[in-house]
Amino acid sequence: MAGSPYDPSRAPVAYGRRAVPQLFSELQQQEAPRRLRALASLCDLLRDPERISCTVSGGSLEQLKVLLKDEDSIVRAKTCELLHLLTAHRIGRQALLSSSFLPHLSELMDDSSSSCRRNVQRVLNRLTLMPAGAEALLTLVPKLMLKLREEEEEEEEDVQVLLLSTLSSCSCLDPLPALASDGVSLLLHKLSDSSTDIRREATAALMALSVCEEGMRQVCEEEVLPVLVDLLRDKDVEVQANAAGVIMYAAIINEGKRQCLDLDVIPILLSLVSQDGEEEKDKERKKALVMYSLRALTALAEAPQGRCLLLEQLSLLGRRSEAAEEDQDIRRNAQNAVRVITWTPCNTGDL
Amino acid sequence: MAFVSPTKRDQNGSYTFSSRPRPVEDRSKYREPPSEQTQSNYGNIMYDRRVVRGNTYAQQIIPTTALPDPVEVQRQQEIRRRTVATKRAREQCRTRTPEALQGRKHIDVQTDLYLEELSDVIVASDIECQTDAFLDKPATPLFIPAKSGKDVETQIEEGELFDFDREVQALLEVLVGKTVEQSLEEVMEEEELAGLRAQQRAFRELRNNELEEVLRLKEQERRSSKEKERRIAQQKEVLRKEREVAEKIAARAFTQQYLADLLPAVFTSLRSHGYFYDPVEKDIETNFFPWLMAEVNNSLEKRYTARALLDTIIDDVAWKRQEAFKDTQ
């Protein structure tokens, strides 16, 4: 508990309003152990949003910037942990962005201590919860990709997961920086990783990247689709859903359609769509998977061979498009798919 | 009087007094006001009225009874007065020896048979007494004072002064409460963040869904518009080619017709421009005539020069003649 005199790892805490300012003045001391203890107490105190708002309005965040450059690596790691706690609340996130902490944090990404690097990645990950944060981090995307390449050698799984998650959040806003830094080939490498978390985050990032045309083109060029078709049979539902998402985007362009049809992906997608006997909670989790698979089938139905194949399997999709299906989105998607499959040139309406 | 502690130790520590010897202090006649704490003035013992003077052998012992009966007191006073009065009367009536004559003195003389030495000194004999050597003081018997008042007992039972459970409850409440509070806060924080992320994920799924639809339709639109453009371009190409062919045909027909009488027209025009010529004539024209004309020019030039010379000579002569004429005038 913070403030108890019997806890040697924490500095004593003053009462009420004086607690946080006094700890901040303690942070300016010369000896590193005292600073560390003050930081530990601050970590305990700053979980309370009211204290965070007092700190932020008091303007004591500048001191933390100084501490980020401290010689002791434990102090740096603790400061990053403190920033991580600050980012749990909106006020803290906004304060971090407006006080321009990003240059310092980006310097710390190259730190020698691994706990410090991990905490910095946590902070950046939490910052992407805000759209403004994701936008600010877009400038850091090349550096993040560089880090991802380096981290492969060090095999820090959680740091990789954090990096990938940050990248996917940033790329949802604007995929171009990541694509420019050769993101697709890097993510392709990560897709075949043994850890489920890494696969999930990598497929999510890839889906964010393939939203724009350049991304779709690169996905088709770099031969990502065979790996994705394997991932459609993965054990984790989210990995399957994300892989289906990438395929759905890639199948929009002609090259993607051609490759998908070459890889014979339609039966797999159909099997994913037509799972009967699911339980309620499974349905919730699989909703995204079913939606994306239906969309992928719709896109593939625009190609002649695809349409031939799908016309045979129309009944399956018909079941999904009926009123018996509770989920409105899935029903709509299925109806859309049926409409595209049964289109003929002499139908009125658009293509 | 100054308060002195009853158990004051002597300087070398040999004695302990229960009541330390102190000099008697002078006491004034009237009591001092009680609030005032006076300094102890040590009075001279010789002038202290309380100290008994002289021989104490024949002193009267002060009666122990406190307040005598007032009647008794009065009677005693009467008796005293009567005795004093009778004594005085007796004194006055008593005949005394007449005074000594001048130059003589009365002296008391012993008239007994045996003279006795009279002195003031009272024969006293000293008697010493010595106590036995100190025996060990036997142990004082246990002083059990007489019982007076009510007997009251009290006993502190186990668990009355300090009940661990009760005391520890407050501490535990604080400790456990603070820990639980902190952890609840942290759990709420995490839940909030998890809720935020779940909401973001749900939004992203829907967004991806709709975005895919949008992109697919956009792509479709692009394809169809491209197809339309291609077809239009194709059609334009066809039209252009047709037009070109028509122009070519028209041009061919026109040229044919134009070139029909080309040959005679050409010959006529050539002939009119003089391209068919007689070489001898041409030769005469190109070589002979220029030379001829040049020669003619030369000779004419010579004639002109000669004429010009002549003109100047004539002019000169005329001028000279005129001058000569003027001279002669």
How much is the average pLDDT of chain B? 83
Using CB atoms under 8 Å apart, which protein chain pair has the greatest interface?
Answer: A-B, 30 and 27 residues
Query: Rounded to an integer, what's the Rg of chain B over CA atoms?
Result: 91 Å
Strand tally of chain A: 0
Query: Helical segment tally of chain A?
Result: 23
How far apart the termini of chain A lie comes to 67 Å
Question: Based on CA inertia axes, which overall geometry of chain A fits?
Answer: elongated
Q: Kindly name the structural category of chain B.
A: mainly alpha
Low-confidence stretches of chain B: 1-8
Strand content of chain B: under 5%
Give the overall silhouette of chain B.
elongated
Structural class computed from helices and strand pairing of chain A: mainly alpha
Radius of gyration of CA atoms of chain A, rounded to a whole number = 25 Å
In DSSP terms (H or I, runs of 4 or more residues), the helix count of chain B works out at 4
Profile the largest sheet of chain B. none
Helix-strand topology string of chain A: HHHHHHHHHHHHHHHHHHHHHHH
Order of helices and strands of chain B: HHHH
Pfam family, one (chain B): Radial_spoke_3
Family (chain B): Belongs to the flagellar radial spoke RSP3 family.
Coiled coil (chain B): 208-245
Region (Disordered) (chain B): 1-43
Could you please describe the fold and organization of this structure?
The termini of chain A are far apart. Chain A has 351 residues and is an all-alpha fold. Chain A has helices at 19-26, 32-45, 49-58, 61-67, 73-86, 90-98, 102-108, 114-127, 131-137, 141-154, 157-173, 176-180, 183-191, 196-209, 213-221, 225-231, 237-250, 254-263, 266-273, 280-300, 304-312, 314-321, 328-341. Chain A is 71% helix and 0% strand. In chain A, helix 17 packs parallel to helix 20 (280-300) and helix 20 runs parallel beside helix 23 (328-341). By secondary structure, chain B is mostly helical. Chain B has four helices and no strands. Chain B has helices spanning 70-93, 164-260, 262-273, 279-328. Chain B is elongated and about 245 Å long. Classes of the chains: A mainly alpha (351), B mainly alpha (329). Chain A binds chain B through residues 1, 44, 47-48, 88-89, 126, 129, 172, 207, 211, 245, 248-249, 252-254, 287-288, 291-292, 295, 298-299, 302, 329, 333, 336, 350-351, and chain B through 175, 178-179, 182, 185-186, 189, 192-193, 196-197, 200, 204-206, 208-209, 211-213, 215-216, 219-221, 223-224.
